[in-house]
Design brief:
The structure is a single chain. With 580 residues, the protein is an alpha+beta fold. It has 3 domains: 94 residues, Immunoglobulin-like; 59 residues, no CATH class; 374 residues, no CATH class. The strands form 2 sheets. Strands 1, 4, 7, 8 and 9 form a 5-stranded mixed beta sheet that branches. A hairpin with a 2-residue loop joins strand 7 and strand 8. Helix 8 packs antiparallel against helix 9 and helix 10 packs antiparallel against helix 12.
């Protein structure tokens, strides 16, 4: 109960914070204190956008308005970079005045412009003008602080020196503390504001993951996943390689419509039991399954966390992912089947398969459907949720809404029929550390984006690619693949999102293809090493707890060559077909 109260309290704090920041954001630009009303005076309205060198809006930039070198107003830009200033001058004063607009923000060079009052548009006693300003980046103290903290957090996550959730929380909290202590004394050290940190959290990703965790948590009580493993063995009729192919297909399909980490959590134990009964090394079955899980998860918007993040950031629909990526994933699954035969074929051939029919009956008795009624309800709700996933572009609805609706409906049914213990499901089936990791990771990435690190990387890639689509696509997919093999693909994808968005906007003919390059590189690259994807870590961790350990190099020796092959296939696919 203490654990539950802790997480509920955390959720409430986050909810109230988001609500408060949303209300503030909804009012647009923030203005200074109320101005004195001048009887019979003339009202001046000045508005515009503050942009960076990539033409992206700059929020929380300070705008100072001066008339004849006398400050008359001070406002702050909204999240969309817009500012609005309204003040009054004495009758006739505006015509002979010079108005100066100065914009400044930490990590940017201040810029100003000056206009003559006589140039303003006039309607009665109201004067109007709209002026935009572009602020160039500067690599000041805030940039170096955010970069160092971000790299240190990355090292802690990559080498598992701290739990990734704690590492991300530590990095995010440190940036905020520095901003509100040293940054208060000297604004050059202000990395990120609390409002900006909260606004950087993508709640579409958080709620989608939470909803799918609840749905799978309820379905787990029906025994359907273990039953599917039994059916796979029954169809294979003792042929171990055929069994491996069936399990890989089932894993890939499940990972396309469920989270691939959850899929492997449910299947790993069953696969180990089947492998032990056949007297083969369980790792010879588990490694192909986890590779299939990462390939299958690449095919859809909801199959792998990087895709969820890309879809939410770029506004891509479920069907966009299916149309662009499903076929290349199918090709890579065929490659996986061949690869599995070449690498583990001898191990499968050495399996001791005795009295197949009797073992099928044993599996049938051990892995039945434990609750057919709940399974019927669950599949109906899951089917409805998948329908909403497929059509959410038509409804202009975020995919998280579909996942939350499905989770709420299935949870209601399970509780009313007393099939599921609510407290147990909330505490055990919702992976709170994963959700918290995402929250703090978004804050970390939002901070380095605000201070200019990502813009610097984007400029470097753009300069290296010279605005050439082929070079940009090649850089993105291969850098994403190699980085994701050695660093968890979730933080890397979060880092690359604004970079790819910028490159897509400035390179002619790229459209959505660069997004697919990032998705394929991040997801396929996760197959390279044991720490490349969360599904790898989970699967090998369970295997190790059962006494079947594989080293970092041992996993890499078999998985990395397959990763290289799939990236070559994906790279050729992108350059030849350029899916949009």
């Amino acid at each position: 109960m203490k654990t539950l109260r802790y997480f509920v309290t955390t959720a409430l704090i986050i909810g109230f914070t988001l609500t408060g920041s949303s209300v503030m954001a909804g009012h647009g630009a923030k203005s200074g204190p109320p101005k004195a009303i001048i009887p019979g005076g003339e009202t001046v309205n000045i508005s515009g956008l503050i942009l960076d060198s990539h033409k992206e809006p700059i929020d929380e930039a300070e705008i100072v308005i001066s008339v004849n070198d006398r400050e008359v107003d001070r406002v702050t830009t909204a999240h969309n970079g817009k500012y609005v200033s309204r003040f009054q001058l004495k009758k006739g004063e505006i015509q002979k005045s010079f108005i100066k607009v100065k914009a400044s923000k930490t990590s940017f060079a201040s810029q100003s412009l000056e206009v003559k009052g006589a140039e303003l548009a006039q309607k009665g006693d109201h004067f109007f003008i709209s002026e935009d300003l572009t602020l160039p980046r500067v690599l000041g103290p805030a940039f170096w602080i955010s970069t160092v903290v971000f790299i240190l957090a990355y090292v802690l996550i990559a080498f598992e020196l701290l739990h990734r959730t704690v590492a991300a929380m530590l990095g995010g909290a440190l940036m905020l503390v520095i901003s509100y202590t040293i940054g208060t004394i000297n604004p050059e050290y202000h990395v990120v504001s609390f409002d900006s940190a909260i606004n950087s959290i993508d709640m579409n990703v958080i709620f989608l993951l939470m909803g799918m965790m609840i749905i799978v948590g309820v379905l787990k009580h029906t025994g359907v996943f273990q039953w599917c493993a039994y059916i796979s063995y029954k169809l294979a009729r003792g042929k171990v390689f055929v069994l491996a192919v069936y399990l890989m297909i089932f894993t890939a399909i499940s990972s396309a419509f469920l989270d691939n980490v959850t899929t492997m959590l449910l299947l790993t134990g069953v696969a180990i039991e089947i492998a032990v009964s056949l007297s083969i090394n369980p790792l010879h079955l588990l490694i192909p399954l986890v590779l299939a899980s990462n390939i299958g998860g690449t095919a859809t918007l909801i199959g792998d966390p990087p895709n969820i993040m890309i879809g939410s950031y770029a506004g891509l629909t479920f069907m966009d992912f299916v149309i662009a990526l499903a076929l290349v994933c199918l090709v890579c699954m065929v490659v996986l089947v061949i690869f599995t035969k070449l690498v583990w074929g001898r191990g499968y051939a050495a399996a001791k398969v005795q009295n197949v029919q009797e073992y099928i009956q044993v599996l049938k008795a051990e892995y039945p459907i434990t609750d057919p009624r709940l399974l019927t309800y669950g599949l109906a709700v899951l089917g409805f949720a998948v329908f909403l996933f497929l059509s959410h572009g038509y409804w202009h609805m975020e995919v998280s809404v579909a996942a939350l609706m499905g989770a709420a409906a299935l949870l209601t049914i399970a509780i009313l029929t007393e099939k599921v213990n609510l407290i147990e499901l909330i505490e055990k089936d919702i992976e709170w550390p994963t959700l918290m990791f995402f929250i703090f990771l978004f804050i970390l990435v939002g901070a380095v984006e605000s201070s200019g690190l990502l813009a610097l990387i984007a400029d470097w890639i753009l300069d290296l690619s010279a605005g050439n689509f082929v070079m940009a696509c090649s850089l993105i997919i291969w850098v994403a693949a190699i980085m994701s093999a050695f660093v968890d693909n979730i933080p890397f994808t979060a880092t690359m999102l604004p970079i790819v968005a910028y490159l897509s906007s400035v390179i002619p003919g790229s459209e959505n293809t660069l997004w697919w390059a990032l998705a394929l590189g991040a997801c396929f690259g996760g197959n390279g090493t044991i720490i490349g994807a969360s599904a790898n870590v989970v699967t090998m961790g369970i295997a190790e707890s059962r006494g079947y350990r594989i080293s970092f190099l041992g996993f890499m020796k078999t998985a990395f060559p397959y990763m290289i092959i799939t990236i070559l296939v994906a790279h050729a696919w992108l350059l030849i077909f350029r899916p949009q």
